[in-house]
Amino acid sequence: MTSKHLASVLRKKLSDQKELIGLLPITGFEIFFYLVPLAFLLIISFWMTKDYQPVPIWNLQNYRLVFSDPLVRVAFFRSLIITLTTLVLTVLVAYPFAYGMVFKVPPKYRRLILIAIIAPFWTNYLVRAYSWQLILGGNGVINHFLLSAGFINTPLSILYTHIATRIGLLHFLVTVMVLNLYATMDNIDRSLIEAASDLGAGPFKNFLWITFPLTLHGLAVGTVFVFIFSFTDFVAPSVLGGGTKPVFSQKIVDAAHWTANYSLASALSIAMILVIGIFSC
Amino acid sequence: MRVSFGHSKASGVESRMSQQEHDVVLDQVSKNFGNIVAVDDVSLKVERGSFLTLLGPSGCGKTTTLRLIGGLEFPTKGRIFIKGQDVTDTPPYKRETNLVFQDFALFPHMNVLNNIGFGLRMRGVQKRDVKKKVQEMLDLVELPDVTYRRTNQLSGGQRQRIALSRALILEPAVLLLDEPLGALDAKIRKQMQTELKNLQRKLNRTFVSVTHDQEEAMTMSDEIAIMNNGRIEQVGTPYGVYERPVSRFVANFLGDCNLIEVEVVESRPERVIVREPRLGTFLFHPDRDWQNLRHQENMLMMIRPENITIVQDHQDFPNKIGGRIKALAFKGSITEYVVEAITTEIKLQVQGRSQLNQGDPVLIGWKAEDCYLIP
């Protein structure tokens, strides 16, 4: 190899490196703030807790608890049910709404509706959850209205049940799903719908064979998001659902904050991650 | 067998054979989009089994007219008839028309079989029969092996044939084509022009096509309807609209032409004499159908470049002008000249190579039958 050849090879290697160097900051960030803590979590889940400190005694005790403790199991299924019902309701509400927005509403009104949907995102999710208390509570807006109109005699207990949890989750997730579906539907090539119509598809068949299949991709993405959010959310069940029927996320918080059983909390978290992973596939 | 003479009236409703069947009839159709008038009082009749092209510049309303025939738009005014039935309010899925879209609009989430078979399945045809018919169709367009491929794996030419198959398999009374050759490479385009024309002849089905390409229209069509600003300027055979345009717009749109403003001096059925103050007097021999309907004094004399030749002084040409060659361009099979004659520039074309150079004096002329008068 001549020295000139060597020089050009080296130069090429260096320029390749330069491209990689550009990626370092974000990779470093991800590694440090995301992967490392996750690794810690994984490690701690196999340790024990003594005197409120994690101690590096390797064992599977925590996991045994996760899978056998009846309270944990109840909380898990409760989370799952809330998540799944929220998911179904979100789709049932968001899909027709998005469809109407894209295909039925005249363009000039569309922007207004979009703004109306996005506006709530300007307030913090936690704050909005608290404001639901005012609406759903015993003295809240709904009960006030129903009582004074004479529809009921005693106030409905919506707040501090998981109906309230679902309402809190729904109101956030429906808007997310609508935006997602709106983007998906708006991107559908209208000439495909026209072509189907020209070929003999009436409005219903057109929807069934053309529009709906083309939205499935976006719907899938939205569904995963809704699932993850509902399953892991801590705010809605706590603020609106009350503490009497804990969900899985609350169990993790219990373990971590109240009993300082970090190992257990870690194990629970890992379990949660696994569930989400399975669902996403 | 349809026979057409060269002369056509403007506004399009011209059929001399009114006892023929018309598959498409547009009766004073207008279409507005808000304040924009896209189609303005259009009346048109398309004979069964003929190939009609709507030709015009972008924005002239031709695509909208096509969509009106297909039912993808509903007219603001007027009525539309397909095979004698009033379909003005009929939605596209109930009309006997099918449209081949400009970008083909093939369904990306279906393979070729399901794309072509879509219309049949909407009609409730059994899967087995659909498959058979689709395969026959693919053999017809010479693509027997692509049945299960996804549409994004095909080339432009293949996609066009799939789109065509998808529409033709339903055997519509009228096949509508929106710029059918627009998305193809120049090389394939010429070939497809003849193929489409042959297909139409073989199937003996009414085709209505839209294009802005004048050559495409002339090659494929039995009749051309030239549109401008939402109105039909002229309907006629390719020869008819080319040699006998009814307006300056039509004359200019279909190719190069020379337009000279003249004054009518004498007007008789068998000959018309016109004069241009500085260029002289010219003779025009009209066809049998010629009528100077409005007895106009001022008209445009149109001569196509290929009808003008270089003449020698002694030759007996009724129409002669002397001038100087301002520019010339050798184009291979022809040479184009621009001759400056007193006040006007005249374009002409001769076969083969040129013997003359820029600046040379030249005498040019044309026969009395080779020109035309436009109001």
Give me the CATH architecture of one domain in chain A, please: Orthogonal Bundle
Radius of gyration of chain B: 24 Å
Q: Structural class from helices and strands of chain A? A: mainly alpha
Runs of chain A in which pLDDT lies below 50 for 5 or more consecutive residues are none
Going by CATH, what is the homologous superfamily of the largest domain in chain B?
Answer: P-loop containing nucleotide triphosphate hydrolases
How many structural domains can be distinguished in the coordinates of chain B? Answer: 2
Describe the structure.
The complex is a heterodimer of chains A (281) and B (375). Chain A is mainly α. Chain A has a domain at 78-247: MetI-like (MetI-like fold). Chain A contains twelve helices and two strands; from the N terminus they run H-E-E-H-H-H-H-H-H-H-H-H-H-H. In chain A, strands 1-2 form a two-stranded antiparallel ribbon. In chain A, helix 2 (61-68) packs across helix 12. The model of chain A has no long low-confidence stretch (mean pLDDT 82). Chain B folds into two domains: 22-96 and 172-250, Rossmann fold; 257-374, Nucleic acid-binding proteins (OB fold (Dihydrolipoamide Acetyltransferase, E2P)). By secondary structure, chain B is α+β, with helices and mostly antiparallel strands. In chain B, a hairpin with a 3-residue loop joins strand 16 (319-330) and strand 17 (334-341). Chain B contains nine helices and 20 strands. Mean pLDDT of chain B is 86; it is low at 1-19. The two termini of chain B are 32 Å apart. A six-stranded mixed β-sheet of chain B has the order 6-7-8-3-9-10, sandwiched between helices. Chain B has a five-stranded antiparallel β-sheet with strand order 13-12-11-14-20, with no helix packed on it. Classes of the chains: A mainly alpha (281), B alpha+beta (375). The interface between A and B is medium-sized, with 17 and 22 residues.
